[in-house]
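Example record used in the benchmark description.
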Amino acid sequence: MRVLVTGGAGFIGSHVVDQLLASGHQVVVVDDLDPAAHDGPPEGLSSGAEYRWGDAGDVGPADLDGVDAVCHQAAKVGLGVDFADVDAYATRNVTATARLLRALHERDFRGPIVLASSMVVYGEGRYRCPVHGLVRPGPRDVANFEHGRFEPPCPQCGGPLVPEPVPEDHWVDPRNVYATTKLAQEGLVQAYAREHPGSVTTSLRYHNVYGPRMPRDTPYAGVASIFRSHYARGVAPRVFEDGGQRRDFVHVADVARANVLALTAERPVPGPLNVCSGTPHTILDMAHALRPAGGPEPLVVGGYRPGDVRHVFASAERATRLLGFEAQVGFEAGMTEFTTAPLRRSLGQPADLP
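Model output (structure tokens):
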């Protein structure tokens, strides 16, 4: 099978490329080497793939020759710096996806499309009130944060809520620009599938991915990379709220394997799938797991980040049932590996960063 992987030189995409090649597939990569994640073509790219340096929205006929499946990883990720990033997120995520799909339409492409989506489309996770059952919390109240109250209350009685794993049919409620663009990407690929019978789209909703090749020291990187970069400089990572926010940390090797399973499924699986470990941990758990011997203790600073949610973690039951996916890298082993795993420098970062 010949697979087009957009963003195939990036953190997750490069691992997908490696696993596809190891399984005997042909791979063509399109990647624009976004300066927020790269300082140029990264080292260690798989020699067996074909690389075309350019935007996913500029995919042309030559890039699509003989392509049997598409793995769309290219995106601008993270919460960003502030709302001024809105046009960059919309352009790189929504417009580029639309232009890629137009190119596929012009070639009458009918193969599988696997999209890198995200758990951020859920917004707040799933909560149950002991009295009122499953409820949907309202917007987070800044006044509560200032008094150290970070857990969302029941919107009906104000009582405490119990967080639960999020299934794929949970409501979606994107709380920031990035999340909104990921949900838009899902809608676009679903529209393509509806209008091109035979083409099936699978949206993989990644939870908190970490592992080798993450970009380092950039506000667009994941929290694991940001904490790891702090420790490497001998600086205590700053943990917002009380550190009790629950997330599902899933290793990049497992995420790449989920992509390969979706691309090569005997019967393509439409719709969204959670890609997660199935075992949540707190942000503070992760900060302690990454702390090197003799390193500074993580600093719990309270406060909050606009667009953040309190708890979101998932069930992988559907991915297990339909794809045979189960995470293989445990939290302790994965975080231990990550403390010394190679990271990537983005444009303008000093070369002496580890």
